[in-house]
Amino acid sequence: DGSENHFDVSIYRNVAVCGGVPYERIPIGLMLEQQRSHEESVVVQGHNEQARSRILTDWVNRLGPEEGLCPLSSQKDTMHLLSKIYTILAERGSKEKYY
Prior knowledge:
The protein is mainly α.
């Protein structure tokens, strides 16, 4: 549906083996919206934003994958390399144009 909380889970079943309906769509985003509308405290962030916030918080608090969700700690070398590349491009950018 294109909303902030759009996230669906599609389940396909072999009905000959397990029975039930062959296809089911579970609208997780809609379920979260409905849950929030029944709660007193309203969460402003969508589930994607909550996950990004949690990953960043875990990284800032130096939590590894064992303690938190942070995959960023294993990407230190990549982040350092990209930072150096951006620095070089920024320094050259004052002299040259890149398109």
